[in-house]
Amino acid sequence: MLFSIVTQHWSAITDGDDFRQHLQFLSHDNAFLSYYPYVFEQRTLFARFQMNLTNPPHVQFVVKPVFSALGMLANLAPLAGPTHYLEGNVSYLASIDEHMTYLCMLASRSNDSFPLHEKRSHLNISIPTDMLIGTRLNYLLEAVQDGRNDPFRVWQWQGKPPYPTTEQFAAMREVQLPSILLAGSQNVQRGKGLSNINLSLNLRAPWIVSVRVCSDDYALPGQVYGVRVRMVFQDEVLIHWKLSTDGLKDHRCIRTYQIWFKSTRSTDAKRKHKWCIINRFIHTPFMFYQYVSKIRPVSGKRDISSVCSGVVGYYKVRAVDFYGRKGPFSTPVHYGTNATFHFGSSKEKHIN
């Protein structure tokens, strides 16, 4: 629904009628906290759980699909065309940057106007390669789908617990962010006729799909900075950061972020501490990550050795783009148990 509202707002602006002069800003009401048993059903970006049975009590948040939709909208390029509407309540919007090195198309099928009697959607997308410069184009498709990226449904399957366990939270967070549907590359031979990037998708409605295409002429990833580590509960921290966008660098061709950790636990004094990636195999498209050292993701893909155990130690983050090019690491920051959060300082730059 949020995507439909935003695209309708954009259509009113691009139509050029008298109504557009009254549209300047689009507000988003999120000025309250959700509470049990309506943690997922109230108009918020996060489901909030007040964990009163722990010592001390604390708060846990789970990302709702509306947050992911906003994050996908943020990937639109500065130059956008009009919103197009198709049968079955499908709409899409295409955008491109001024340097012709980046293209983003968002498409959605929503149930805000009428019920969806046919849940399955077959979507064919064709993108002319001459819309972008460069000799190689890499693309990434992400989606939020009903039943696949739905922590609310997982919580319902769990019996709607008011105080979910660590494992139950892990199961919800496994599906809280967009999933990667396709990723690929296509070489472009200029002057030898037109070619297209052809994609075919099978989706479960309601859904929202992001298609991002980046030229090999696109700038390298910027440096991550402002890394902060906040305590959530025992052996659990929230890590968030910012990305430098100096010059031509920005976030739009970033595929994921790598979070590296090195333990400094006193109990491991005889062991040589090593850096390890704590979000390996976990798609991390946004600038935050909640790390629970004692839990293994439900997918079972992550293999973190004992050197990655615990949360006390140094953290550093870097961005990785569609071509696998890695930006500079952030300044390593140290997290201990005596403060709620820590942020980097220049005197820690010698750590590597």
UniProtKB/TrEMBL annotation:
It comes from the Eukaryota. Gene3D superfamilies: Glycosidases, Glycosyl hydrolase domain, family 39, Immunoglobulins. Residues 25-180 form the Glycosyl hydrolases family 39 N-terminal catalytic domain. InterPro entries: GH39_C (IPR049167), GH39_cat (IPR049166), Glycosyl_Hydrolase_39 (IPR051923), Ig-like_fold (IPR013783). It holds the Pfam family Glyco_hydro_39_C. Signal peptide: none annotated. Residues 226-335 form the Alpha-L-iduronidase C-terminal domain. GO terms for molecular function: L-iduronidase activity. This is Uncharacterized protein. It comes from Anopheles arabiensis.
